[in-house]
Amino acid sequence: MHHRTSGGKLIRDLGVPGDDLCSDATSDVFVPTVPYQIDEFDHNGRLIQTIEDGDVPLGCAVNPKSGNLAVTNEASGAGYVAVFLSGKGPPNGYYDPAIGTFGLCTYGSGGNFFVGGTGEFSCGASAGQQRVRELRPRP
User: In what helix (H) or strand (E) does residue 106 lie, and over which residues does it extend?
Assistant: First the structure.
């Protein structure tokens, strides 16, 4: 994972693998790296913490209202989303047995969570089709 300026000049290599990443309001960057962990780096590229996830993390997003970190997981069977309160563990897990794998995700400005996933959904999509769902926080 490389850190570049807007002009494209390489500032530093964070030294971790990763296909997805997300950042919080303080510009800390979260990178799902290898099975079972997410690395958090400050805006200078220094490792702040390694968050233990318990599964294979695929995507992440930070809620702009609460600062909670959501991490989508591949899982065995039904996928799930792990939500770390203020970016700290242990997570609360949100499961959907109709989704085999949750993929990339994001939060809207209002705090609603959007997630893509594959699998059989109750609305009749067959396994393997990609769908996006919106999940609202509980009042």
Answer: strand 101-107
Helical (H) or strand (E) element with 58: strand 57-62
d(CA 64, CA 114): 13
- Choose from 11-20, 103-112, 128-137 the range with maximum mean pLDDT: 103-112
Domain ranges of the chain: 2-135
| Predicted confidence (pLDDT) per residue in 25-63, tens digit | 998 999 988 778 899 999 888 899 999 887 888 889 999
How far is Cα of residue 1 from the mean position of the Cα atoms in its chain?
Answer: 16
Distance CA 111, CA 137 (A): 7
**Helix, strand, or coil here: 2?**
strand
Average pLDDT value for the chain: 75
Q: Do 38 and 71 contact (CB within 8 A), yes or no?
A: yes
**What CATH architecture is 2-135?**
6 Propeller (2.120)
Q: What is the pTM of this model?
A: 0.75
Q: Is the peptide bond before 97 cis (omega within 30 degrees of 0)?
A: no
